[in-house]
Amino acid sequence: MVWRSQRLLVHLPRLRLIDLLLLAAAGAVLYALLAIAPGNLRRVSPSVVIDLRTAALPGYTALSLLRMATAYGLSLLFTLTFGYAAARSRRAERVLIPVLDILQSIPVLSFLPAVLLAMIAVFPRQTVGLEVGSILLIFTGMVWNMTFSFYHSLLTLPPELVEVARALRLTWWQRLTSVELPAATIGLVWNSMMSWAGGWFFLMACESFTLVNRSFTLPGLGSYLAVASSRGDLRAIAWGLVTLVALTVVSDQLLWRPLVAWSQRFKVELAEDPDPPRSWLLNLLRRSRLLPATQRRIWLPFIESLDRAFQRVEEAIRGVPRRAPTTRLLAMGRSLIAITAIGGVAWGAAALTGMLLRVSVSEWGQITIGAGATFVRVGLALAVALAWTVPLGVAIGLNARLARVVQPLAQVVASVPATALFPVLLAVLVRIGGGMSVASVLLMLLGTQWYLLFNIIGGANAIPRDLLEATALLKVRGWVRWRALVLPAIFPHLVTGGITAQGGAWNASIVSEFAEFSGRTLSTVGLGALIARATQDGNYPLLAASTMVMAVIVILANRLGWRRAMRAAESRYHLE
User: Fold this and answer.
1) Using CB atoms within 10 A of its CB, is residue 143 exposed (0-12), middle (13-18) or buried (19+)?
2) Residue 272 C-alpha from the chain's centroid
3) 232 Cβ partners below 8 Å, 6+ apart?
4) CA distance 206 to 227
5) Could you report how far apart the first and last alpha carbons of the chain are, in Å?
6) Is 191 in contact with 454 (CB distance < 8 Å)?
7) How far apart are CA 329 and CA 324, in angstroms?
8) Of 412, 537, 504, nearest to 113 (Cα)?
9) What is the mean pLDDT of the chain?
10) CB 434 within 8 A of CB 525
11) Is the Cβ–Cβ distance between 134 and 144 less than 8 Å?
């Protein structure tokens, strides 16, 4: 036993300073999870009082960060499973993509009553139920653009890569890890950045909310900003925003910038970029001796064992002949699933119909007028967003130096919750003659333009260097270069950004058309304001009707516009 321990010590790599720092960081995170977080979580209750002192911000920030990380992990797992199933099975695609359209079109506050009541019912202790409900609400603000990005990346894989995978008879696991995930990595990284920023954007609504005139508050940075905004405490708002900005800058340096630089290895190109994205942290990690040793002795053997296991399972499935009893059992299983799904849909439709019948004629009139007003605001926000995100996103994606400066700034601005900006925006708009209607468009723009910007940056960043050099050699410039190379190359990413930006704009209407500040309720005519007010008052029929109308509008826009554009991207605008 002693001899084995001595041999293990001999084979351990000599640690460098970066290895010691990594071990120290891992120990600090583990200590925070095991010692600090549980103590704070035990003090959570539905009637918690938010402390607006600056000294309370570190603890609140840690709790919010833990919820965000958990929600992002769930979003990534959902993205990989849901997106892969929809892209690899036409039968599944016909069911999953409409479901994704519907879920993406439902705003965060419309999920609130069902999620919150279900979690409190499942977990008798309201503390656990509120925590799980808050994480699920943050999840609904993160997951959709990631899923659409991964799904569209799989649909636009270069055909020669697909043919090579078939010729090599790769298993589905080998094809996923060696072909499909690498091809989708750049878009997934940029959409993960957007999802993380979107999670901060809706954090105020996910940690502090009112249901049936009862307030539920979880300690966190979002609830800190929400309480400070409702009381009109400008000092607390400023400190909360400073904390959020600092956290965004730190996460950019320690997480997103290294991931962007690392993702360049999966770029499909023949010529090397002379000025690729760089990260000081990634350069330090590449000097580590502990990480390569861990990868060589633990990670790679684990992946190889998975490859062998999945290969044996697939070969066994291929070798088993399709027998009549097995076929009948599979058919019975599919029929049972279909009957259960149809029964659930029928029950839900009956319950929804009963609620809609309780909506008065005057309320339907309010919904119609509100839908029209919000539709106009969404259109204006998307038009303004497209006007500036396309040229700037392409410039950032093609210029690494510009990206190093603008990328963290975009993340900071995208992370700032819209309702936290109400005091500043309203003060400015009152002076220049604007009002809540103009403020709601600006706040909606803050919640939607980043979906376009980050997708466009990812698309421009993925353009092969050899194509850019070919256009330079041929002296293709100006509009001809945009029409022949840039726009076709970014078109699939632009469609992905457009789909999620449209859903994000409708979603942002709930925080841009209705807010509380200094004890006053500020609102304007719109569907988002109706949803927010119905959630606060517990008017479930009005909430169901408003949400249904919003979902129908978003789904129709996706089906009649964005989905056709995506089919064009699949057939015409991909590398081959």
Assistant:
1) buried
2) 30
3) 423, 517, 518, 519
4) 13
5) 57
6) yes
7) 9
8) 537
9) 76
10) no
11) no
β-strands 520-523, 214-217: how paired? unpaired
Judge whether 377 and 559 are in contact, CB under 8 Å: no
The 10s digit of each residue's pLDDT in 464-480 is 777 888 888 888 788 88
Residue type at 518 in one-letter notation: S
The DSSP result for 91-139, as a single string, is HHHHHHHHHHHHHHHS-HHHHHHHHHHHHHHHSSSHHHHHHHHHHHHHH
Q: Are 488 and 573 in contact (CB under 8 A)?
A: yes
Q: How far apart are CA 126 and CA 216, in angstroms?
A: 10
The token duo for 308 is: 């062998």
434, with CB counted inside 10 A (0-12, 13-18, 19+), is middle
Residue 271 tokens read as 């010529």
Q: Which residues contact 544 (CB under 8 A, 6 or more apart)?
A: 352, 355, 356
Which tokens sit at 439?
């403020």
Token pair in block for residue 462: 């993925």
State in words which class domain 47-278+359-571 has. mainly alpha
CB 238, CB 85: distance < 8 Å: no
Structure tokens at 163: 């043919």
Closest CA to 229 of 240, 220, 213: 240
348's tokens:
């839900």
* Structure confidence by residue, pLDDT tens digits, 35-83: 544 444 444 445 577 888 888 888 888 888 989 999 999 999 999 998 8
Number of DSSP helices (H) and strands (E) in the chain, helices first: 28, 4
Checking phi first, is residue 91 left (phi over 0); if not, alpha (psi -120 to 50) or beta?
alpha
Closest C-alpha to 409, from 392, 391, 387, 433: 392
Of 339 and 416, the structure prediction assigns the larger pLDDT to 339
285 alpha-carbon distance from chain centroid: 27
Q: Are 136 and 119 spatial neighbours (Cβ–Cβ below 8 Å)?
A: yes
Comparing C-alpha atoms, which of 397, 154, 450 is closest to residue 260? 397
Over residues 324-338, mean pLDDT:
64
What is the dihedral sign for C-alpha 526, 527, 531, 534? Answer: positive
Dig out the tokens for 354 from the structure. 């009963």
Provide the pLDDT for residue 76: 93
Which stretches of 12-54 are DSSP H helices? Answer: 17-31, 37-42
pLDDT (tens digit per residue) in 400-458: 778 777 777 776 676 666 556 655 666 566 566 556 777 778 878 877 788 888 888 88
Instruction: Provide long-range contacts, Cβ within 8 A and 24+ apart, for 208-215.
Output: 208/50, 209/109, 209/112, 209/116, 209/535, 210/535, 210/536, 211/112, 211/113, 211/116, 211/535, 211/536, 211/538, 212/537, 212/538, 213/536, 213/537, 213/538, 214/46, 215/46, 215/47
